[in-house]
Amino acid sequence: MPYHWYTDQRFALFIMCLVIILPLSIPKEIGIQKYTSVLGTLAATYLCVAVIVKYYLMESHAVIITPEHTEGVGSWASMFSVVPTICFGFQCHEACIAIYSSMENQKISHWVGISVVSMFFCLLIYTLTGVYGFMTFGRDVASDILMSYPGNDVVMIISRLLFGISIITIYPIILLLGRSVLLNQMLRLRRRSHGIVSSSFESRCRVALTVVWITITLFIAMFVPDMGEVISVIGGISAFFIFIFPGLCLVFIMQGDQVSCRFNGVLTVWGIITIVVGTFIFGQSTTIAIMDLIDKF
Question: What Pfam families does UniProt report for this protein, alphabetically (predicted)?
Answer without folding.
Answer: Aa_trans
